[in-house]
Amino acid sequence: MGVEEEYLLVDSGGVPSGVADAAVRAHERSGGEAADEGPPGGGLEHELQEQQVETGTHPCLELTDLAAEVRDGRARAASAARQAGAHLAALATSPMPGPTTLTHGARYEALAQAYALTVRDQLTSGCHVHVSVADDDEGVAVLDRIGPWLPVLLALSVNSPYWRGEDTGYFSIRSQMWNRWPTAGPTAPFGSAQAYRDTVAGLIATGVALDPAMMYFDARLSPRYPTVEIRVADVCLRADDAVLVAALSRALVETAARQAADGVPPGHTRVEPLRAATWRAGRSGLSGDLLVPPALTPVPARDAVAALLDHVRPALTDSGDLASVQDLLGRLWQRGTGADEQRAWAREGGLPGVVEQAVAATVA
After folding, report:
1. Other CB atoms closer than 10 Å to residue 317's CB: what's the count?
2. Sequence ranges of the domains in the chain
3. pLDDT at res. 39
4. Do you know which InterPro entries this protein is assigned to (predicted)?
């Protein structure tokens, strides 16, 4: 498994700062790996806006190794940001208002031309977890079975209550902004790898999607690696929570692969309840009810997380991750989500204080 994290770059006042190009160049001058060279992980990359950068881990088998890689990536990005005159913040949206500056490049310019305000507003940062699969057939079988559980992962990661100076009332406004893309969100079961490929080709043929990389599903077959890529989560404020989301994601993939091998059919056929479950998770995080399989009925968030843990317990036990996941969950319940922490900081120091505290928490 591996983790990609997107971050905000902010100035000393907490306002988004468009210095990604300088940060990436500083990273490469210091001997860091260049983007898109060699195996995945270890680099620092541009994102859609110049106010963002992205890191990725190398593929990891052990959770301890992944945790070290996540922390190293954050430290690497924070150092590059400082060299560019900015700070790094693991915030899924910016609490402070500020401009967006499109990253240079033909593809980004094509996105801006095609999607207009959606691109200009898209200063959002997510956490993407890659889990290896045997082939596309196993990957699609996994996608067809994990969808009803993905909103619980979103609820665990919520880290975007503020949007340009305003408390939105959501725990993840990023998930709302992200779902403005025409190809974003949950998917119904595909049934086969060929059906998945046909769906991708059909969306591109409509002209609504520019290329396979624009399949912004909550979970998809990665267009770059032999993995299932789970994309539903906010970037986590704390590195511990990113590791938790990754461990649960791998366990979900393993559980689904076992179900498919045993002939267990997908537990859902319609996308509408999944959209409702995703909205619910983004609206209230862990503070209210979540919708859980098999019927996607509302239950208190603690019960929903417990149900997810029970669902993947055999896979967590077999990988040796169960005790670590239980410990990470305990810490999360004790301190709250990133959205909880942001709102607590805002009561003490306003939105500039939120960003200042988040910069420290990003590499804590």
Report:
1. 12
2. 100-362
3. 59
4. GCL_type2/YbdK_subfam (IPR050141), GCS2 (IPR006336), Gln_synth/guanido_kin_cat_dom (IPR014746), YbdK (IPR011793)
0.85 exceeded by the pTM?
yes
Here the tokens at position 82 are 């400082």
Q: Among 110, 116, 124, 112, which Cα is nearest to 47's?
A: 124
Q: Are 66 and 249 in contact (CB under 8 A)?
A: no
Residues 6+ away with beta carbon under 8 Å from 185: 179, 216, 217, 218, 271, 274, 275, 278
The pLDDT of residue 35 is 53
The residue whose two tokens read 């001997």 is 31
Which residues contact residue 170 at a Cβ distance below 8 angstroms, ignoring those fewer than 6 apart? 160, 161, 176, 282, 283
Which stretches of the chain drop beneath a pLDDT of 70? 33-39
| Per-residue model confidence as pLDDT tens digits over 225-253 | 999 999 999 999 999 999 999 999 999 99
Query: Is the backbone peptide bond immediately before 294 cis, with ω within 30 degrees of 0?
Result: yes
Place of tokens 């541009």: 46
The architecture (CATH level 2) of 100-362 comes to 2-Layer Sandwich (3.30)
Among the residues of 206-265, which ranges form H helices? 239-261
- Which residues are CB-neighbours of 58 under 8 A, at least 6 positions away? 2, 39, 40, 41, 42, 69
CA–CA separation, 38 and 86 (whole Å): 28
φ/ψ of 181, rounded to 5, equals -65, 140
Structure confidence at residue 168 (pLDDT): 98
What is the structure's pLDDT at 268? Answer: 85
Q: Give me the pLDDT at residue 41, please.
A: 79
**Which residues does 177 contact at the CB level (< 8 Å), separation at least 6?**
93, 121, 122, 124, 163
Distance (Å, whole) CA 191 – CA 194: 8
DSSP 8-state secondary structure symbol assigned to residue 214: G
Secondary structure (DSSP) of 151-166: HHHHHHH--B-EETTE
Can you give the pLDDT at residue 42?
82
pLDDT in the model for residue 31: 78
